[in-house]
C-alpha cells in the first residue's frame, strides 16, 4: 500500500461548490503539506502543518482552508471553488530529521473547476 | 524574496546523450537542496545536498552543490527514454520553519 494516499484522484466540480481533498499517510511523519502544481509554475505551497495543533499558511492560501484531524490526516478544502483553482494538488509529508529532509508525495488529485 | 530558478525549462535529447540540468537560487540560508523526478504524477526523491562540492551519485545520475556560486547541477549520462520526466529542484529554508521552495522544473524528453 502507498505511504501517502489522496482522495479523490480526479474531480470535476462547478464554480461556487465546496470541495474537500483528503490526504492520509502511514509514514508516521508529523509534518504534512499541501501544494498545487500548474504548468510552468512548479509546486506552490498552500498550507503546512507540523503537528495536529499547528497549521500555517503557505504562499497561496487565499481561497483554501485545511484541517489536521489526526497525525495521519490532513484535508484541504475549497470553500467556494473558482476556475483558477483548476490544478494538480499534491499532499506531502516529511519527518524533518537532519538525516533526511526528503518529502514523500501522494499521487495527486487533478481538480477541474468549470 | 527567496527564489529558485531552474534552466532550461525544457530539453529534448536523443538516447545516449548527456544532459546537465541547472538549479540556481537566491536564498540566504537553507538546510538542504533536494532534487526530485516527476514522471506521471508524484515527484520521487533523487538527491539531497547539504555540503558544497560533494558529489552525490546514483547510477547514471549525479548532482553537486556550489554554495559560493549559488547553484546546483543534476547530470544524467547515457540518457534513456525512461529518463523522460520533469526534474524539480527544492530548497528547505532555515527561517524558523520547514518550508520548501520549489523551482519551476525542467521538462526532459529523451527520444529513442
Outline the low-pLDDT stretches of chain A: none
The biggest beta sheet of chain A is recorded as: 7 strands, mixed
Count helical runs of chain B: 0
Shape of chain B: globular
Task: Count helical runs of chain A.
Answer: 0
Q: Could you tell me the mean pLDDT of chain B?
A: 92
Describe this structure in words.
The complex is a heterodimer of chains A (114) and B (112). Chain A has 114 residues and is an all-beta fold. Chain A has no helices and eleven strands. Chain A has strands at 4-7, 10-13, 19-25, 31-38, 42-51, 54-57, 64-70, 73-78, 87-94, 104-105, 109-113. In chain B, 0% of the residues lie in helices and 59% in strands. Chain B contains no helices and eleven strands. In chain B, strands 2, 4, 5, 9, 10 and 11 form a six-stranded mixed beta sheet that branches. Chain B has a five-stranded antiparallel beta sheet with strand order 1-3-8-7-6, with no helix packed on it. The model of chain B has no long low-confidence stretch (mean pLDDT 92). At the A-B interface, strand 4, strand 5, strand 9 and strand 10 of A face strand 4, strand 5 and strand 9 of B.
Overview features:
heterodimer; A: 114 residues; mainly beta; 57% strand; B: 112 residues
Concise description?
The complex is a heterodimer of chains A (114) and B (112). Chain A has 114 residues and is mainly β.
